[in-house]
DNA sequence: GCCGTTTTCGGCCCGACTGTTTTCAGTCG
């Protein structure tokens, strides 16, 4: 019995209890037990006594033991027998929770979406106590687009929307301060909606301008402090705005950045100090409310260092405070080691990219256009590579301290050979190897290709090591653990590709890379100047895996970097 | 259901919004 199955079973039990209208604290006890298991890195076999974990007691431990010994949970089986299957998906219908669904089932026998629709159309629902005509109408409306809207959207779909809204907020004079919050600010790979915190003393004016300027598909709620809309984008995007006064801004930003578990931990901490955290500030024992100029000041109030949004997840981050200073921030980044120009499939010239890199504040970077195999991307032959080098040299002569290195993003071919000979590679400053073809090969073949790159003395880095697209495709299925072990053995760099389509390596793999002390490079893979902005996203994503600054190659100085790239020459 | 240096009962993070209510329950984040 694996741990994941046990975690899922506990969560299922919680869901069923919720559907029966059970005590919410009992429901959350099962979820907490699941979270406690998930948050512990040990395997089940390594734990001698699960009840030692905080959140697991007699009841949940009995479920776990039974699962380990028999493979089934009698508690869950019984719940499943007593609850109609059709009710489960209805939990996702906005506005309906366990209590209401329990009532609909108990009093009207509603056990499916179809039955619910029929009951609403017959006007039976509005006759129930606690329900009314509006509820019935809302249920019908939600049933109409039930299942048609994506539950969570990938970060690359949300990022441009966030940029657009940020620009709009900056143009509204009544907005004193504003920031995105929620899971997007924590750089989660997918989000259910986008949250914004807006400081203003004129909420009505801000509300009017937002509603007038945004492509609103639907207004879900529009109160004095909260506006909730669905925007008309490729996929409908839910956006929440919280309007607060400037003195409550830092507290609200913290509160709505979450995560939920992080907030719970913070509130418990406050409570132990006889204080109370709300989104408006921190209430003291005497009833007065302290507010803060910044999130830094908020954390300092509890004698904590600033905890970056990206690590505010399980609550365990409060146990890892001493590691926070080892995390990288955007200001630590000296270089971007992977990008394209008009020589292959990029939108800007070498000189234009160079200027933009200097404007980013970098002290060096590498131009890495595609290699000859990738014809669709106008990949470079050895001859064109030489011509490009002349252009790069000219740029360097004209630009003093900043150094642009000549590199390549070389394809690893389907047959396991590399796209350039060693004679070509050794002339280059920096060699990236990557896979862009034959994704569906069996794992052994993919690994043989990667091994060819790993063992070549002139290759420095493997780019986007799994080829995944966030929320779209899993990639080419390498044995990532082995790949990371090779990177350690052959002293190669693995990329954290910062493009929101990729975020590759993913957090779980970065964590293993950290265990082994493998070097990581955070690169934008920019095909145009405006994509250089993804560096910030990549750096913050690295924080989620607690990647150490010293292992991030592009935080190194130019001299350190040169020492590494010349090591085999 | 879980937890405990206010410890075996009584609380469990907190507040906004909505719709249903004449003071609150349910849902959501």
UniProtKB/TrEMBL annotation:
SUPFAM superfamilies: DNA polymerase beta, N-terminal domain-like, Nucleotidyltransferase, PHP domain-like. Residues 1-313 form the DNA-directed DNA polymerase X domain. GO terms for molecular function: DNA binding; DNA-directed DNA polymerase activity; phosphoric ester hydrolase activity; zinc ion binding. The keyword Protein biosynthesis does not apply. One of its GO terms (cellular component) is cytosol. Keywords: DNA replication, DNA synthesis, DNA-directed DNA polymerase, Nucleotidyltransferase, Transferase. Its EC number is 2.7.7.7. Residues 335-414 form the Polymerase/histidinol phosphatase N-terminal domain. CDD domains: NT_POLXc, PHP_PolX. Pfam families: DNA_pol_B_thumb, HHH_5, HHH_8, PHP. The keyword Acetylation does not apply. It catalyses: DNA(n) + a 2'-deoxyribonucleoside 5'-triphosphate = DNA(n+1) + diphosphate. GO terms for biological process: DNA repair. InterPro entries: DNA-dir_DNA_pol_X, DNA_pol_lamdba_lyase_dom_sf, DNA_Pol_thumb_sf, DNA_pol_X, HHH_MUS81, Hlx-hairpin-Hlx_DNA-bd_motif, NT_sf, PHP_dom. Its cofactor is Mg(2+). Residues 48-67, 88-107, 123-142 form the Helix-hairpin-helix DNA-binding motif class domain. NCBIfam families: PRK08609.1 (NF006375). This is DNA-directed DNA polymerase.
């Amino acid at each position: 019995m694996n741990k994941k199955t046990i975690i899922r079973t506990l969560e299922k039990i919680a869901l069923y209890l919720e559907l029966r209208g059970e005590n919410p604290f009992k429901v959350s006890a099962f979820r907490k037990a699941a979270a406690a298991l998930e948050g512990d890195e040990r395997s089940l076999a390594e734990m001698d006594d699960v009840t030692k974990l905080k959140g697991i007691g007699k009841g949940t431990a009995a479920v776990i033991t039974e699962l380990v010994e028999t493979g089934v949970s009698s508690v869950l089986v019984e719940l499943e027998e007593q609850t109609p299957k059709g009710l489960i998906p209805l939990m996702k219908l906005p506005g309906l929770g366990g209590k209401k669904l329990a009532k609909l089932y108990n009093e009207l026998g509603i056990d499916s979406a179809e039955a619910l629709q029929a009951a609403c159309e017959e006007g039976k629902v509005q006759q129930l106590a606690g329900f009314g005509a509006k509820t019935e109408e809302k249920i019908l409306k939600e049933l109409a687009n039930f299942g048609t809207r994506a539950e969570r959207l990938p970060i690359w779909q949300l990022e441009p929307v966030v940029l657009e809204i940020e620009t709009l907020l900056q143009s509204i004079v009544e907005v004193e301060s504003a920031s995105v919050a929620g899971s997007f600010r924590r750089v989660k790979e997918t989000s259910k909606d986008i949250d914004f915190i807006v400081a203003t003393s004129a909420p009505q004016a801000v509300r009017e301008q937002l509603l007038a300027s945004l492509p609103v598909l639907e207004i879900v709620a529009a109160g004095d402090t909260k506006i909730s809309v669905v925007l008309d984008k490729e996929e409908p995007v839910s956006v929440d705005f919280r309007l607060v006064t400037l003195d409550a801004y830092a507290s609200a930003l913290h509160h709505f950045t979450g995560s939920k578990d992080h907030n719970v931990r913070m509130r418990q901490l406050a409570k132990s100090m006889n204080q109370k955290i709300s989104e408006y500030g921190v209430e003291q024992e005497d009833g007065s409310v302290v507010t803060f100029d910044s999130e830094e000041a908020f954390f300092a109030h509890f004698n904590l260092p600033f905890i970056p949004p990206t690590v505010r997840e399980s609550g365990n981050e409060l146990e890892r405070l001493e590691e926070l200073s080892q995390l990288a921030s955007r200001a630590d980044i000296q270089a971007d080691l992977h990008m394209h120009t008009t020589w292959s499939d990029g939108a800007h010239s070498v000189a234009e990219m160079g200027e933009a890199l200097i404007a980013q504040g970098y002290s060096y970077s590498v131009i890495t256009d595609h290699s000859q195999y990738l014809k669709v991307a106008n990949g470079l032959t050895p001859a064109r590579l030489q011509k490009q080098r002349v252009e790069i040299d000219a740029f360097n002569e004209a630009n003093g301290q900043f150094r642009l290195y000549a590199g390549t993003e070389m394809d690893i071919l389907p047959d396991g050979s590399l796209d350039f000979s060693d004679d070509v590679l050794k002339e280059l400053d920096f060699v990236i190897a990557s896979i862009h073809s034959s994704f569906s090969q069996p794992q052994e073949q993919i690994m043989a290709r990667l091994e060819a790159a790993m063992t070549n003395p002139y290759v420095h880095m493997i780019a986007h090591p799994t080829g995944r697209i966030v929320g779209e495709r899993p990639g080419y299925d390498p044995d990532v653990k082995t790949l990371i072990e090779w990177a350690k053995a052959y002293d190669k760099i693995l990329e954290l590709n910062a493009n929101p389509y990729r975020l590759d390596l993913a957090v779980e793999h970065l964590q293993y890379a950290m265990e082994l002390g493998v070097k990581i490079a955070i690169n934008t893979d920019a095909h145009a100047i405006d994509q250089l902005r993804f560096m910030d996203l990549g750096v913050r994503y690295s924080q989620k895996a607690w990647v150490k600054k010293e292992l991030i190659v592009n935080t190194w100085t130019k001299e350190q970097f040169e020492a590494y790239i010349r090591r085999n020459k």
